[in-house]
């Protein structure tokens, strides 16, 4: 072949090569899935069908692939993906292919795949060497708070995006932009906050961390302060009866907090430093670091420190509106993930906390014994240590079958005094939960069985009395999940052999039916029981001169019997388009009936707190309707109304439970500007709470000047925050709390005579501080 022929041949080959390469395109399509196994299955099907590269992400349900259009069509690839069980925007998977997917891969079917114009970005690749034609990039913002569509129970998934809307210094402040949970001050001296859900106190909600028991026992009054907001990776809030797998203590629902960890799909080292301060003398620093150690090991280092140094007394009663003190909180998490190979995964955690606070009259010196000074003081010192592990194994060739084992050891110690009253408490707890999960025939029939063990050892001193007890609770449970084309039924039961409360049977049921792809109906019912820790849970009334009296009825816990309640719920969730944009309305009704209850009676006498078991009826009716709407791009609107009817039979008769508003209103407005290429944008958030009148305890036995009205006035609070992201790495935020400035006029009865008979700092129904302004900054590197 001569030179001219060789040159001609080379030119022809070059032209053919260029033409062939020019047919390589990048496309993106919506494909349904859940987990890493879904990712592997989808990508394998795409490559087998002829794609050159394929990458599927669970977060936005998007498959990005490159292909040679001269050799294969997108339709052929999407058809192959549907054949292996995954719905996509072109083809729906055959019913048998979907049903044969592993349990963890069963995504929610029925949702459409339409692409609103404002979520699409057409772009050209700037790299000339690839010669790729213009592709389509789909961007979808993750919802800050989303109602899970696939779960039988009514579950809200609260992401880190929601937590950025407010200061969120700790878990108690993480719900200020959430309509389901009510956050309120419970004491004018110690400044503690408590949650309420479905019209009942926090103690009736199962509060877990990493699905392990967390805020219970002696940690009940202050435990919300033990989880810093910057440590939280996400929150799952279950309204009503939760699964029996997590225990028997849930009555009104469950709130589970997940700590910040490295993501399996993005194992990059990241460290964030957060600094915070407000105008009333509180400062805070957080350091969180997540990083990979190897392909299978990742770690998280979580550090938190705060201090309150200012003397805040906005109502001029001589008492601090919130305690001074400091907290040091350290945690280390170690994660192992080899599910795809050996089938094993494990999570280790260790946490140490030291919390010291001083409250009372301004000028009180904690270093001097209370009996040696005239000023009234409160001192609370808490030490807490936790060690936990969760290990799971997925059986080879059976991805629907797994075995999990969770263990946690907790030691909690509180040394405290309230004026001349001393309270000391020690708690040692051990929790273990073994869970086996598999299917019956196919993944439409799933079940979980297991065994649990709970050990609690309490040693408490109040004044001159000592209370010791040890609770051991071995338990067995089983749960069955039936999944149909339009419904999901989860039913389960557990039996627990409590050494002090006797054998307890706990059944629960959740049922979801999709009336249409956008109309979901749910019902739930279940039983729960718990043992009351009357001293730890009633510390909000210790800053008073009320005398504690226990009316013994022969029970094994403080002479009292355990609390038992049934909870029933129904909800309707409706999605629709309004002005071409997504809108959701949720309405739910829950009723809680107590079979037995430990009553905290503040009405019998203004100089006493009575504890006794319920004789008669006790109930809580809760109705809530919530509307979420995005009227324009980047603007989110949430409004809610709540109605509570909560009453019980006291010794003096059937009465409404105090400090519970019958009517509550809520509105949240959030707006953010478009993010620039460098990650710059503004965010604005405001939350309005309307609180109706509340029944107040009977104080008629006090002199007239120290008596409360029968009902509190209604009031409103407004919180707002502005934040500026200067890049993906730097964020500054400025906010204000209680901008309406509403303040309870008399937060402490007879504050001028704290050692007298009528002193009482527990009669709090509204904010005790006026406006509070704060500023913070986040650095990532």
From TrEMBL:
Q: Which GO terms describe its molecular function?
A: metal ion binding; siderophore uptake transmembrane transporter activity
Q: What is the lineage of its organism?
A: Bacteria, Pseudomonadati, Bacteroidota, Flavobacteriia, Flavobacteriales
- Species in which this protein is naturally found: Epilithonimonas hispanica
Gene Ontology BP term (one): siderophore transmembrane transport
SUPFAM superfamilies named among the record's database cross-references: HMA, heavy metal-associated domain, Porins
Q: Which GO terms describe its cellular component?
A: cell outer membrane
Q: Which InterPro entries match?
A: Beta-barrel_TonB, Beta-barrel_TonB_sf, HMA_dom_sf, TonB-dep_rcpt-like
The stretch of residues making up the signal peptide is: 1-22
Q: Which cellular compartments is it found in?
A: Cell outer membrane
The protein depicted here goes by the name TonB-dependent receptor
Q: Which UniProt keywords apply?
A: Cell outer membrane, Membrane, Receptor, Signal, TonB box, Transmembrane, Transmembrane beta strand, Transport
Q: How does it sit in the membrane?
A: Multi-pass membrane protein
Q: Which residue intervals define the domain TonB-dependent receptor-like beta-barrel in the entry?
A: 311-739
- Where's it mainly located? membrane
Q: Which domain of life is it from?
A: Bacteria
Q: Which Pfam families match?
A: TonB_dep_Rec_b-barrel (PF00593)
């Amino acid at each position: 072949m001569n030179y001219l022929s060789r040159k001609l041949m080379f030119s022809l080959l070059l032209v053919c090569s260029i033409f062939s390469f020019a047919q390589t395109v990048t496309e993106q399509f919506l494909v349904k899935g859940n987990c890493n196994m879904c990712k592997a299955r989808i990508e394998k099907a795409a490559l087998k069908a002829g794609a050159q590269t394929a990458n599927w992400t669970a977060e936005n349900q998007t498959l990005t692939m490159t292909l040679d259009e001269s050799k294969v069509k997108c339709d052929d690839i999407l058809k192959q993906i549907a054949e292996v069980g995954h719905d996509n925007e072109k083809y729906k998977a055959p019913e048998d292919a979907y049903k044969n997917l592993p349990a963890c891969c069963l995504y929610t079917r029925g949702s459409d795949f339409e692409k609103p114009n404002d979520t699409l970005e057409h772009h050209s690749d700037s790299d000339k060497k690839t010669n790729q034609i213009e592709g389509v990039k789909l961007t979808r913002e993750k919802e800050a708070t989303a109602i899970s569509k696939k779960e039988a129970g009514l579950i809200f998934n609260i992401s880190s995006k929601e937590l950025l809307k407010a200061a969120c210094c700790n878990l108690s402040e993480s719900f200020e932009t959430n309509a389901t949970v009510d956050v309120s001050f419970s004491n004018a001296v110690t400044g503690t906050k408590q949650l309420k859900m479905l019209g009942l106190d926090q103690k009736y909600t199962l509060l877990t961390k990493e699905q392990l028991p967390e805020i219970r026992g002696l940690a009940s009054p202050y435990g919300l302060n033990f989880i810093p907001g910057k440590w939280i990776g996400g929150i799952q809030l279950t309204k009503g009866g939760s699964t029996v797998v997590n225990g028997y203590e849930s009555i009104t629902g469950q709130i589970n907090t997940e700590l910040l960890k490295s993501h399996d799909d993005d194992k990059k080292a990241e460290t964030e430093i957060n600094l915070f301060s407000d105008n009333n003398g509180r400062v805070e620093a957080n350091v969180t670091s997540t990083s990979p150690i190897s392909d299978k090991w990742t770690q998280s280092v979580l550090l938190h420190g705060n201090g309150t140094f200012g003397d805040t007394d906005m109502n001029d009663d001589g008492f601090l509106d919130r305690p001074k003190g400091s907290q040091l909180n350290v945690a280390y998490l170690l994660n192992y993930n080899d599910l795809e190979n050996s089938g094993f995964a494990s999570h280790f955690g260790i946490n140490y906390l030291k919390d010291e606070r001083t409250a009372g009259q301004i000028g009180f010196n904690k270093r001097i014994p209370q009996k040696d000074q005239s000023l009234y003081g409160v001192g609370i010192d808490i030490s807490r240590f936790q060690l936990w592990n969760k290990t799971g194994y997925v059986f080879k060739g059976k991805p629907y079958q797994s075995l999990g084992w969770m263990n946690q050891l907790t030691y909690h110690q509180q040394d405290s005094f309230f004026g001349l009253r001393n309270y000391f408490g020690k708690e040692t707890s051990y929790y273990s939960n073994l869970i086996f999960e598999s299917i019956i025939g196919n993944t439409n029939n799933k079940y979980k069985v297991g065994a649990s063990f709970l050990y609690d050892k309490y040693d408490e001193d109040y004044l001159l009395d000592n209370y010791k007890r040890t609770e051991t609770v071995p338990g067995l449970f089983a749960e069955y999940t039936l999944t149909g084309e339009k419904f999901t039924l989860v039913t389960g039961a557990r039996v627990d052999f409590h050494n002090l409360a006797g054998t307890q049977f706990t059944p629960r049921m959740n049922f979801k039916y999709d009336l249409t792809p956008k109309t979901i109906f749910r019902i739930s019912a279940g039983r729960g029981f718990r043992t009351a820790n009357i001293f730890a849970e009633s510390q909000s009334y210790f800053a008073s001169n009320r005398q504690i009296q226990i009316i013994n009825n022969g029970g094994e816990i403080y002479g009292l019997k355990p609390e038992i309640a049934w909870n029933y719920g129904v909800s309707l969730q409706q999605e629709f388009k309004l002005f071409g944009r997504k809108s959701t309305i949720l309405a739910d009704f829950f009723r809680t009936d107590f079979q037995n209850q430990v009553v905290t009676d503040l009405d019998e006498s203004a100089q006493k707190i009575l504890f006794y078991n319920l004789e008669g009826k006790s109930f809580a009716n809760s109705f809530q309707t919530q509307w979420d709407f995005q009227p324009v791009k980047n603007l989110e609107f949430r409004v809610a109304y709540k109605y509570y009817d909560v009453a019980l039979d006291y010794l003096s008769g059937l009465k409404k439970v105090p400090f519970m508003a019958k009517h509550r209103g809520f509105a949240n407005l959030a707006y953010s500007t478009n993010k620039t290429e460098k990650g710059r944008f503004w965010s604005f958030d405001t939350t309005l709470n309307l609180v109706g009148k509340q029944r107040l305890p009977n104080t008629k036995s006090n002199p007239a000047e120290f008596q409360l009205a029968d009902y509190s006035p209604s009031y409103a609070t407004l919180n707002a925050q502005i934040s500026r992201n200067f890049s993906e790495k730097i964020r500054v935020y400025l906010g204000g709390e209680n901008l309406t400035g509403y303040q309870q006029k008399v937060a402490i009865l007879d504050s001028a005579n704290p050692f007298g008979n009528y002193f009482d700092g527990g009669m709090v129904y509204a904010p005790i501080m006026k406006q509070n302004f704060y500023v913070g900054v986040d650095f990532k590197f």
